[in-house]
Design goal:
Helix content: 25-40%
Strand content: 5-15%
Largest sheet: 8 strands, parallel, barrel
Shape: globular
Number of helices: 15
Order of helices and strands: HHEEHEHHEEHEEHEHHEHHEHEHEHHE
Strand order of the largest sheet: 2-3-4-8-9-10-11-12
């Protein structure tokens, strides 16, 4: 680990002081508000002191298939670093306060890991040292800008193809072929194996131990999304370990429950100040399936199809936050944002688990999307609606490329309507 990665945690107040020079607007008042102080001249129109806003304003920075960063494989270390810094500066210019950097996209690593190879998204060759430490640099540079840096991991995805020979010879999936299941054109680690569950935790916890990250983040991939006509072959594992369960689905959900509970405990033991959060597909179950479900008609239900009981994790306070991907517009018939948001607020209410909302910025201005997404005000209306639900503590935008490009001005409108003042993430 480099000296940069070993730097002591800057206090939130130090973050704010550093961020002062990089904020686009707000001057000394903005800097003091970030620090939680009451600056002179920070009175509202009624003469009362304003409190610093606490809400999460985040963006995902995806590396899988080079979606957001690096822009292509094989760039020099200097070019990769410059692009990363540009993304962080863009987050600051949009008055965001958190970046969710994908550091383990496919059973690989964007830091020097003793468990898994360097990711090929950096150099084009899996296992090749890129000549710098992306995660360590990201943590340092994000903190210098007043941004939280959350490390985003994908627990079980191994490769976006089904050919193990394309993996580096030393890859754990090649050394343990019995750990791997091909499905839907991809390779996955088998969640039904206890040794797999332990290994993926060890691989992720290596980064948690080494770097001063603010959070550990998972997205929506547990068991893979269903593919018509294909079967995820875990017969042998179910026969060996599933005897105590009424059916395979219950056993699979228990496997994912164990992964969540064990990882949560290990994060707190290694880095108590780091949040652990998950960003699932936006529908737990439809009400037609379960009376506790949402008024939706989604074709995928995380409980039934991904074997992820996301509602239980919130209600039992297993995780620090939930960030459902409510990636539909207000009024969308099958999954209406205006119905899903209050449903998730109700799930989070009284739980101790913070609710953040995953926002589909990538749909804004996309001509392939419904008419609502052609209106630059659609996302801003999402944030306005969320103001009615105190459980909603912030929003995360997918993803960094669109935060910068802002195809139809939707992000700029969010900033103009909702992010005029700086904010600190909830803690």
């Amino acid at each position: 680990m480099s000296g940069k990665a070993r730097h002591a945690r800057m206090s939130r107040r130090a973050f704010a002081v550093t961020a002062l020079s990089t904020l686009v607007a707000g001057g000394a008042v903005a800097g003091a508000a970030l620090a939680g102080a009451e600056p002179s001249g920070a009175n509202g129109s009624d003469g009362k002191r304003r409190k610093a806003t606490r809400e999460l304003r985040g963006m995902w920075l995806a590396t899988v298939t080079n979606r957001d960063w690096p822009s292509k494989q094989g760039l020099s270390a200097t070019q990769q670093r410059a692009e990363l810094i540009t993304h962080l500066d863009t987050a600051v210019s949009r008055r965001l306060n958190a970046v969710f950097l994908q550091v383990r996209p496919t059973a690989d690593a964007l830091w020097p890991s003793p468990y898994e190879p360097w990711s090929q998204v950096l150099t084009g060759t899996q296992g090749k040292d890129p000549g710098w430490d992306p995660l360590g640099t990201a943590v340092e540079e994000a903190h210098a800008r007043g941004l939280e840096l959350h490390a985003w991991f994908n627990p079980y995805r191994v490769a976006n193809n089904t050919d193990p020979s394309k993996l580096i010879a030393s890859h754990p999936a090649r050394r343990h072929p019995d750990w791997v299941v091909p499905y839907g054109g991809k390779l996955y680690y088998n969640p039904g194996l206890p040794e797999v569950r332990r290994f993926v935790q060890d691989a992720m916890l290596d980064a948690v131990r080494k770097y001063d990250i603010d959070g550990v983040h998972w997205d929506d991939y547990f068991y893979p999304y269903p593919v018509a006509g294909q079967t995820f072959d875990d017969d042998a594992e179910f026969a060996k370990y599933g005897g105590a369960f009424p059916d395979r689905a219950s056993w699979r959900r228990d496997n994912i429950d164990k992964l969540v509970l064990e990882t949560a405990a290990r994060i707190k033991a290694v880095r108590p100040g780091a949040d652990f959060g998950i960003s699932p597909f936006g529908v737990w179950r439809n009400a037609a399936t379960d009376a506790l479900g949402s008024d939706t008609r989604a074709g995928v239900q995380t409980y039934d199809d991904l074997y992820a009981d996301t509602r239980k994790w919130v209600r039992q306070n297993w995780i620090d936050y939930i960030c459902p991907q409510i990636y539909w517009n207000i009024g969308f018939a099958a999954a209406d944002y205006a119905k899903l948001l209050p449903w998730w607020a109700g799930v989070a209410k009284g739980s101790g688990t913070k609710l953040y909302v995953g926002e589909a910025l990538y749909k804004a201005g996309d001509p392939a999307q419904p008419a609502a997404w052609q209106d630059p005000a659609e996302l801003s209306r999402h944030l306005t609606l969320a103001q009615s639900y105190p459980e909603a503590r912030g929003h995360v935008f997918f993803s960094a490329k669109e935060v910068g490009a802002d195809r139809n001005g939707a992000m700029a409108q969010v900033v103009a309507d909702h992010y005029q003042q700086p904010a600190m993430p909830p803690r």
